[in-house]
Specification:
alpha/beta; pyridoxal 5'-phosphate synthase (glutamine hydrolysing) activity; Rossmann fold; lyase; binds glutamine; 5 helices; three-stranded mixed sheet; seven-stranded mixed sheet
C-alpha cells in the first residue's frame, strides 16, 4: 500500500484523506518539510491558493516541494491545488507563488463570475465507467498548456483536467463526492511508478 501525503496547510484536507483511504492508499497529512520524506505521492487540496502559497512559504515547504516535484514525486492537485501546480498564473495576486510542475497557464476563479459553484458531468480520459461528477467551486480553468501536457478533460470549451508526467490536476473536487475514480487513477499511477 503506497503512503500518500495530503498537504495540510489549508483546504479540504480531511476529504482527500478519506478519498485516498477509499482508493486503497495509506493517507497522511503533511505540514513540515521532513514529512515529505518517504512519501510515494502527494495531494494538494482545494481551498484558497493564495493562503496555501503563503503558508507553504511560512512553513518552509515551497522549495522542498518544488524540488520533490522536479525529482518526480507524483502529485495530484484539485482546484486551488491545480493552481499551485501551474508553472504560471494569469494575474497572480501579489506575492502568490506556485510550486509548479505542469507547463500551463491557469486563470483563477475563471468559472466564478457566472456561477460561484456548480456540478457537472465531466468525461475524463483514462477514467473508466462514464463521466465523473465534477464539483466546481470558484474554480480555475487552464488557459493554455505546453506540448508535454496531456489534456484529460474539458468542460464548456475550457480545459479542466491535465497531466504532465507524474503530476495530475483537476479544476473540480472529486474529494467532495462519493466517486473515488480520480483518486484511484492517481493511486494506480503512483503504484505503477513505484
Ligand atoms: N478560487 C480558489 C483559489 O483561487 C480555488 C477554489 C477552490 O479550491 N475551490 O485558490
Amino acid at each position: 500500500t503506497p503512503t500518500i501525503g495530503v498537504l495540510a496547510l489549508q483546504g479540504d484536507v480531511r476529504e482527500h484523506l478519506a478519498a485516498l483511504a477509499a482508493a486503497d492508499a495509506a493517507a497522511v497529512p503533511v505540514r513540515r518539510p521532513e514529512e515529505l520524506t518517504g512519501l510515494a505521492g502527494l495531494v494538494i487540496p482545494g481551498g484558497e491558493s493564495t493562503t496555501i502559497s503563503k503558508l507553504a512559504a511560512l512553513f518552509g515547504l515551497t522549495e522542498p516541494l518544488r524540488a520533490a516535484i522536479r525529482a518526480g514525486l507524483p502529485v495530484y492537485g484539485t482546484c486551488a491545488g491545480l493552481i499551485m501546480l501551474a508553472d504560471k498564473i494569469l494575474d497572480p495576486r501579489s506575492g502568490q507563488e506556485t510550486f509548479g510542475g505542469i507547463d500551463m497557464i491557469v486563470r483563477r476563479n475563471a468559472f466564478g463570475r457566472q456561477n460561484e459553484s456548480f456540478e457537472a458531468q465531466v468525461e475524463v480520459r483514462g477514467v473508466p465507467g462514464g463521466p465523473v461528477e465534477g464539483v466546481f467551486i470558484r474554480a480555475p480553468w487552464v488557459e493554455s498548456v505546453g506540448a508535454d501536457v496531456e489534456v484529460l478533460a474539458e468542460y464548456g470549451g475550457h480545459i479542466v483536467a491535465v497531466r504532465q508526467g507524474a503530476v495530475l490536476a483537476t479544476s473540480f473536487h472529486p474529494e467532495l463526492t462519493g466517486d473515488h475514480r480520480m483518486h484511484e487513477l492517481f493511486v494506480s499511477a503512483v503504484r505503477a511508478g513505484s
